[in-house]
């Protein structure tokens, strides 16, 4: 020991050994920082010092070695010199197992090698390989392997030292080494579950299992100019034929000459016009990325429209892919003057009154007889109305959590997703706060508009973006897609959180979930059997069909040979000896592609939906919530609007002066005999062009007064209507006021 404490002739950090473990290794990730104090003639690994059993921090942080006094360190070295390590059999074992009656001692590096557990918290306890804490492994938990969400390599579901599972997500498994590197990089403020974003429960369990979480800021926050490279964006049009006269490097934001980057690599770009893209919200991938997907066993992501015909421009086929289905159609740069359009056309534009549902031309209708179709549709709509009334009451119960404290979101309609993400991730954001939305391009809006119309419009745009985003796939009913970048950035959690917040805060019903996705959320993926229509990838769907409809064993085996790489990647490759084996094979492929493949996104999405207790209510009332999550909202009708408003009068409603004009006017609007729409009327009164799933608060009312023109009081959701002598006078005043009021707001 005297040799250890003597000062060497050539004092080199790399060659100096630790006074506690006797090693010269300099590996901060495993043993902590190797510190050398020339003035004390001392070198020590930080973790060796922390975990030593006979020493405590008796000094201040700036005394000795982080509070460990030099005299105490020398005493600990002398104490350890008498103890033999049970692993390497050498003396100097300063760490002992804290289990009762266990007398094992060891060096810190030896303990790591022998898979001991060191708890970097409270009393800094250590447990030997026999008494170390273990995680509970339920018998019903699925065996096998899944992806570690940090390194994305496979990790086996085994109760071993090298594997850890998340305490908050039953389907999240990690390599211990990956978690330790993540903790050292993220620090105590940013280390959390990579699937559900849980921090407290996750950190508590990881500390118990021996993960060291340093009490400092994340490494990326400490690095100077760490994000400088992110400020440089690729801006070059790489399509085969660029249409821009100002060159491939020309980029004009908010126009058809704005450059859109590849959604996968971000290293190639295109002008919106050069790829026939109508909106920035559409996704685009470069030729190189598509070829990579095509050559891999995972198949390329084709367009979501199954049998889309190629669009022609001046007799020439488009050089790049068509826009994704269900995206809003609007010519760039044209004003959104929806007031001058008929109800049938109005809903196809991205205006404050646009619906989340498709135009009628894009809907698939069942080939039933007109009588049966109408009858079934009537019964279905009646059932959906009943279920939506139930959801309305449930959401009102959840709304009790909302406080009067406000959180303001600054939103730009052109960057709805990035602005919403930034707002939801800000530190002062709480789902229980009242949300106020301020559109950056609508600075002149009144206070009433900001608190009502802006919030309704924000949630409508947000749900529309999510519906058409890369987080979901499918044409009508959508399932979650697999986007590794989105998993890394925790976007599935944010999407679920946004949908939950929208429902409770008065946003529109999403209405685009597939039945399979809804059932996975409510009943668990293990209890769901997917169908062929859940497969959005055209190539995979065709492969499944070929297997399903193979009429001989030879044709089946030939099909399997052609797609053996895909089957191997899916874990479905097995010997086929009979034609009937195809049914089990098809089922396995569907379960893998629709459910198992998106295990991580699904779990993250579920955690987001738990916000404000929405997922719990979904599981308690599945039929009711299915009506708003899996079905499009019902088109506004004269009957719907009439039932929505309560007429304030002391006499019979049918005898109220002006009531018949009001009902007659709604019929004219519905039939298209007016320059305004039913959505315009609703927007004029409430600030929203849709009926929220939670309903309006307060409930809309109508008053007939001796006034010249109609007045919409949005704070009260009250419509004050003039009493006129003739119906034509009533109609003229309604159209003039509503049209001009909304036009001024848009301008």
TrEMBL record:
Q: Which Gene3D superfamilies match?
A: Hect, E3 ligase catalytic domains, Zinc/RING finger domain, C3HC4 (zinc finger)
Q: What is its main location?
A: nucleus
Q: By what name is this protein known?
A: G2E3 ligase
Source domain of life is: Eukaryota
PROSITE patterns the UniProt entry points to: EPHD
Q: Does the keyword Nucleotide-binding apply?
A: no
| Gene Ontology molecular function, alphabetical | ligase activity; ubiquitin-protein transferase activity; zinc ion binding
Q: Where in the cell does this protein reside?
A: Nucleus
Cross-referenced SMART domains:
HECTc (SM00119), PHD (SM00249)
**Which SUPFAM superfamilies does the record match to this protein?**
FYVE/PHD zinc finger (SSF57903), Hect, E3 ligase catalytic domain (SSF56204)
Q: Which organism is it from?
A: Rhagologus leucostigma
Pathway(s): Protein modification; protein ubiquitination
Q: Which Gene Ontology cellular component annotation is one that this UniProt entry carries?
A: nucleus
Q: What InterPro entries would the database entry show?
A: EPHD, HECT_dom, Hect_E3_ubiquitin_ligase, PHD-type_Zinc_Finger, PHD_PHF7/G2E3-like, PHF7/G2E3_ePHD, Znf_FYVE_PHD, Znf_PHD
Write the record's keywords in alphabetical order, separated by commas.
Ligase, Metal-binding, Nucleus, Transferase, Ubl conjugation pathway, Zinc, Zinc-finger
The answer to whether UniProt assigns keyword Transmembrane to this entry is: no
| One matching Pfam family | zf-HC5HC2H
PHD-type domain ranges (all copies): 15-132
């Amino acid at each position: 020991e005297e040799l250890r404490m003597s000062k060497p002739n050539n004092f080199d950090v790399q060659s100096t050994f630790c006074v506690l473990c006797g090693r010269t290794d300099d590996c901060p990730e495993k043993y902590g920082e190797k510190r050398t104090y020339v003035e004390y003639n001392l070198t020590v690994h930080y973790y060796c010092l922390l975990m030593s059993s006979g020493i405590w921090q008796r000094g201040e942080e700036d005394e000795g070695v982080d509070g460990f006094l030099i005299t105490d360190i020398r005493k600990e070295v002398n104490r350890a010199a008498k103890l033999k390590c049970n692993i390497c059999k050498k003396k100097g074992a300063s760490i002992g197992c804290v289990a009762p009656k266990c007398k094992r001692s060891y060096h810190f590096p030896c303990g790591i090698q022998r898979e001991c557990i060191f708890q970097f918290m409270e009393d800094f306890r250590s447990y030997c390989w026999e008494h170390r804490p273990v995680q509970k492994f339920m018998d019903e938990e699925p065996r096998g392997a899944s992806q570690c969400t940090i390194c994305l390599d496979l990790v086996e579901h085994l109760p071993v030292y090298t594997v850890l599972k998340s305490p908050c997500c039953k389907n999240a498994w990690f390599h211990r080494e990956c978690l330790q590197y993540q903790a050292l990089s993220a620090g105590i403020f940013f280390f959390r579950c990579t699937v559900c974003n849980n921090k407290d429960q996750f950190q508590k369990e990881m500390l118990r299992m021996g993960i060291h979480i340093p009490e400092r800021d994340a490494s990326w926050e400490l690095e100077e100019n760490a994000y400088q490279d992110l400020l440089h964006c690729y801006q070059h049009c790489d399509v085969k034929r660029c249409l821009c006269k100002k060159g491939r490097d020309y980029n004009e934001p908010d126009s058809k000459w704005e450059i859109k980057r590849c959604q996968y690599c971000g290293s190639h770009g295109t002008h919106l016009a050069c790829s026939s893209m109508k909106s920035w919200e559409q996704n685009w991938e470069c030729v190189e990325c598509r070829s990579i997907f095509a050559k891999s066993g995972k198949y390329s992501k084709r367009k979501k429209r199954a049998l889309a015909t190629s669009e022609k421009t001046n007799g020439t086929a488009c050089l790049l892919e068509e826009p994704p289905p269900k995206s809003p159609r609007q010519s760039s740069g044209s004003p959104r003057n929806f007031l001058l359009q008929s109800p049938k056309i109005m809903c196809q534009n991205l205006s404050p009154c646009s619906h989340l549902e498709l135009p009628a031309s894009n809907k698939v209708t069942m080939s039933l007889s007109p009588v049966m179709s109408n009858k079934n549709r009537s019964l279905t709509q009646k059932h959906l109305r009943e279920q939506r009334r139930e959801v309305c009451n449930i959401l009102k119960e959840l709304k009790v959590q909302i406080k009067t404290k406000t959180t303001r979101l600054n939103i730009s309609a052109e960057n709805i997703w990035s602005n919403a993400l930034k707002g939801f991730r800000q530190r002062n954001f709480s789902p229980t706060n009242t949300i106020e939305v301020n559109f950056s391009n609508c600075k002149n809006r009144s206070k009433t508009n900001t608190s009502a119309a802006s919030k309704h419009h924000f949630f409508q745009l947000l749900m529309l973006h999510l519906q058409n985003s890369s987080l979901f796939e499918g044409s009508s009913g959508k399932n979650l897609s697999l986007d590794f970048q989105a998993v890394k950035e925790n976007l599935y959690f944010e999407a679920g959180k946004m949908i939950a917040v929208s429902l409770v805060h008065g946003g529109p019903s999403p209405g685009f979930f597939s039945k399979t996705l809804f059932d996975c959320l409510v009943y668990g993926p293990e209890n769901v059997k997917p169908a062929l229509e859940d497969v959005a990838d055209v190539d995979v769907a065709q492969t499944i069909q070929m297997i399903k409809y193979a009429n001989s064993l030879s044709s089946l085996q030939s099909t399997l040979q052609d797609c053996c790489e895909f089957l191997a990647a899916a874990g479905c490759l097995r010997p086929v000896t009979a034609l009937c084996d195809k049914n089990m094979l098809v089922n396995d492929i569907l379960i893998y592609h629709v459910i198992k493949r998106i295990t991580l996104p699904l779990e993250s999405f579920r955690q987001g939906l738990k916000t404000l207790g929405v997922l719990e209510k979904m599981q308690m009332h599945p039929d009711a919530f299915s009506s708003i999550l899996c079905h499009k909202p019902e088109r506004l009708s004269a009957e719907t609007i009439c039932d929505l408003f309560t007429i304030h009068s002391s006499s019979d409603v049918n005898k109220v002066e002006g009531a018949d004009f009001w009902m007659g006017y709604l019929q004219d609007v519905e039939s298209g005999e007016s320059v305004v729409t039913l959505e315009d009327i609703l927007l004029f009164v409430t600030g929203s062009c849709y009926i929220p799933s939670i309903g309006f608060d307060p409930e809309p009312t109508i008053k007939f007064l001796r006034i010249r023109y109609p007045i919409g009081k949005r704070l009260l959701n009250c419509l004050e209507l003039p009493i006129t002598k003739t119906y034509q006078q009533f109609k003229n005043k309604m159209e003039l006021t509503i049209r001009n009021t909304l036009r001024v707001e848009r301008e």
